[in-house]
User: Which sequence fits this backbone?
């Protein structure tokens, strides 16, 4: 198999990093310098304010994905990195979707949102804002059903995830 025919995969990495200025910049800079692709990245402080949890969805062949894990793990601010495997983890994404609507379309759009357990978080004379949470596939399916409507704005958070159970909880001792 030639290099152009190699399979491309996605992996979800969870990082625990020091909650300091420049940490996210150093991580994204490593991806940029090495030409690695980030599908999504989310970051937020953990229950311990000294640390931030970063979830990165990266794509590439097996060699590239292994290199990403090794190279990111060497960064000084990174306390832990591991893959969140689909069968051992829970993934979620949040999307806010602003859809143009008038009185005649409003109930149809609300019905679609209800099927996907979406919440109407804002109603205007000419638009609705829908909040939907779930897997990336669920959000993509919801957006496909809105294809006949005008999406004015769309904001997606990117994937957040945690490993199932207590076996993979990361404890940082200082």
Assistant:
């Amino acid at each position: 198999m030639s290099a152009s025919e190699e399979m491309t995969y996605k992996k979800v990495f969870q990082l625990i990093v020091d909650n300091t200025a420049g940490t996210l910049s150093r991580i994204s800079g490593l991806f940029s310098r090495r030409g690695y692709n980030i599908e999504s990245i989310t970051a937020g402080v953990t229950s311990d304010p000294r640390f931030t949890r970063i979830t990165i969805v990266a794509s590439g062949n097996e060699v590239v994905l292994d290199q990403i894990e090794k190279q990111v793990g060497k960064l000084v601010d990174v306390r832990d990195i591991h893959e969140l495997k689909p069968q051992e983890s829970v993934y979620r994404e949040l999307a806010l979707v602003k859809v143009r609507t008038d009185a005649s379309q409003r109930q149809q759009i609300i019905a679609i949102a209800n099927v996907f357990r979406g919440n109407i978080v804002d109603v205007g004379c000419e638009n609705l804002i829908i909040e939907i949470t779930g897997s990336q596939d669920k959000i993509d399916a919801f957006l496909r059903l809105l294809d006949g409507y005008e999406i004015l704005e769309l904001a997606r958070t990117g994937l957040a995830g945690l490993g199932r159970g207590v076996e993979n909880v990361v404890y940082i001792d200082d």
